[in-house]
Amino acid sequence: MSSHPPRTRALHHLSDGESDSENPNVLYRSLRRDEDPRRGLRPPEGYDPNLTASQHITAGSRAKTKSEFVSATRSAKVASAWASEGGPGGRVARFNKPLDRESYDLTNPYEAARVFPTGKGSSLNTAKASQEVVIRGGVPPENITGVWDAHRVPMSQYAEASADTVPGFERKSRSRSKATNTPHPVVLTEWVPPRR
């Protein structure tokens, strides 16, 4: 059985694709502006511990009441697209999934059925398309293996971007945060944490 996450959105002609993590325990997250990865990836303050994984996924990032779950993706490309959505200052973290915490990989049919027993619905489809993984309680700092700044760039700059032309270059990709969006070019560069 392949460990590749299944493709659940049609390939856009401007996209590099979304599937790129063969290891289900290596995940990526577009960080909130208030997240400091040196302290780990935590749920927002004031979260409701009674909210379920399905409620977390269905409400999305615009939920008025936050849950104890932290969302991630198996795709660095999808995380990069999300991180570059809000203008300058977006960041992406790569981390090893904490195996001692409750989590659900929505690309895994068995785990998806535990969250969405009917196997149907737009929330499940969106989660699968984003290769979403949710983790109760977040991620400890020792599991984080990399952090990068995400820069949306013009196509001419994207075409030239490499380790030879961009200081701190990590990777580049053209992808989209949502299946309905047009892919845009993103360059990831090494994150330099601010002094505390």
Structure characterization notes:
The protein has helices spanning 53-59, 76-83, 109-115, 122-129, 155-160, and strands at residues 26-30, 69-73, 91-96, 103-105, 132-136, 144-152, 169-175, 184-190. The chain is built from 5 helices and 8 strands. It is 18% helix and 24% strand. Residues 1-7 and 11-18 have low confidence and may be disordered. Strand 7 and strand 8 (184-190) form a beta hairpin.
Bin the strand percentage: 15-25%
Mean pLDDT: 86
State the helical fraction: 10-25%
What is the 3D form? globular
Work out the number of β strands: 8
Series of secondary-structure elements, N-terminal to C-terminal: EHEHEEHHEEHEE
Please give the alpha-carbon distance between the first and last residues: 46 Å
Q: List low-pLDDT spans.
A: 1-7, 11-18
Notable features of this structure?
single chain, 196 residues, alpha+beta, 3-stranded antiparallel beta sheet, globular
At a glance:
The protein is α+β, with helices and mostly antiparallel strands. It has helices at 53-59, 76-83, 109-115, 122-129, 155-160; strands spanning 26-30, 69-73, 91-96, 103-105, 132-136, 144-152, 169-175, 184-190.
Can you lay out the helices and strands and say which pair or pack?
Blueprint: E1 26-30, H1 53-59, E2 69-73, H2 76-83, E3 91-96, E4 103-105, H3 109-115, H4 122-129, E5 132-136, E6 144-152, H5 155-160, E7 169-175, E8 184-190
Antiparallel strand pairs: 1-3, 2-5, 3-6, 4-5, 6-8, 7-8
